[in-house]
Every structure is written in structure tokens, then in C-alpha cells.
Amino acid sequence: MEESISGFKVRGDWGDIVEHGERITRALRDVDVHDPDQDDARFVRAFEEWDEWRPKAHETLESDVSEKTADQASVEEGKGEKAGKEPDEDIKTAGEKLSESYEQLEDDDAEAAVDNWKESIDYVARAADSASRKALRRVEDTVYQNVMTQLAPYYFDNELISANIQQAARNGGNGEQFVFEVNVNDDVLKENVSDRLAEYEDEVDRWHVEVEKDTDAAEAIEGAEPPPEPDDNSRSTTN
């Protein structure tokens, strides 16, 4: 591993890349970034996002990490989407508000009519906003997955972690090679993570990479629930 001001970098095959992500995740757990009960819990959600995005042993760069990169980079939700409303629902509500406005005008209730008219306009605007965001995301997904990731690294960025993975030139007969750089954006946390990574280098003889477990077949055969997964699925063997 190379450490610099820009982060922690490794070069190697897919297993090396996965292990690097697991080590950094384990180091963040060891300093309680994931714990919502700590005094400073501002990075809990950011840690969860990172833990979801980081490459896994059963994934591939071109498919899984590409899709997660596109999802992470997509336009955030607007007011209508946050309210759980589709554009056509807001258009329907706008029509209802407009009808109420006309009825109130007939009843000489001009003030209420104006209020409903304004609400109708708001719903139309919200519907247009939601539709625009959805269309933009569809374009983004295509661009990021099919174009941008061919020209630039697969990346992740939030307030806790900035990371990128690049495919490197093949090294003789060693198969596909990658470069994975991860930076911890908070200086104090970065120093703590650096200390933890150094401890792993000294103490861990062999890092057991986390793999996806297929428990469905076991449940069907045994007729029992699988044991709960531990908080940290990575395993290590010490000297």
C-alpha cells in the first residue's frame, strides 16, 4: 500500500482491490465511525454509503461498481419525489385544485380561489421538476455506465470518503490489474485510519476476504434460519 496526501493506494488484482476496501472499512469501524450512539455520529450515513459502494469479491468493475457509481452520482430527489409522488399524481392534484378555484370564483370567494390557483401552479411545477429529474437520471445512467467509466475512473465521493478505481495495463501474465485509491476526508479520522492500517500490516498474517454467502439452499436443506451475520464480516489471522 502507498500512502500519500491524496490517500491510501494499492495496485493489484481484484482480490487486492477488495481487500484494500475491506481494510479501510474495518479501520473505520475500529474508530467507531459506524456507531450512531457515539458523541460525534455525523459520519454514520456516509459510512453506510461507502460500505455499500466499495467493491466486493463477488462483484465486477464493469457491471456492479459501474452501476453503483452511476447511482451515487445521480441527481438528488426533488420535493415531489421526496413526498413519494409521481408526476402524473401531481398533475391530477393540480387539476383538482384548479377546479376548486373555479367553483370558489362562482361562489364569490376570490381569496380561496386565488389560494387554490396558486397551489395548482405549485403542483404543476413540482410535476415538471420530478419528470425532468427522472429523465436526467436516465441519461446519467447511460452516460456514466457506458461512456464516462470508459474514460475516467470509477469513483465514489461523500463527506467521509473520496475513492476511485482505475483499470491498469496488464502486467505480463498476471491478468487484469487495477489501481484503487481511497482518501478519508477528515484529517483526524485519516490519521486514525492510517494508524489502524499500519497495525493490520504488522499483526495480520493473512486477510480473509469477505465473500457473499448463499444461505437460501442451506435453509431449504436444513430447515433452519442461518446464523446472524457479524458486524464485520472480514476475517483476519494474526501471527
UniProtKB/TrEMBL annotation:
<protein>
    <submittedName>
        <fullName>Uncharacterized protein</fullName>
    </submittedName>
</protein>
<dbReference type="Pfam" id="PF19146">
    <property type="entry name" value="DUF5828"/>
</dbReference>
<feature type="region of interest" description="Disordered">
    <location>
        <begin position="58"/>
        <end position="91"/>
    </location>
</feature>
<dbReference type="InterPro" id="IPR043868">
    <property type="entry name" value="DUF5828"/>
</dbReference>
<feature type="region of interest" description="Disordered">
    <location>
        <begin position="214"/>
        <end position="239"/>
    </location>
</feature>
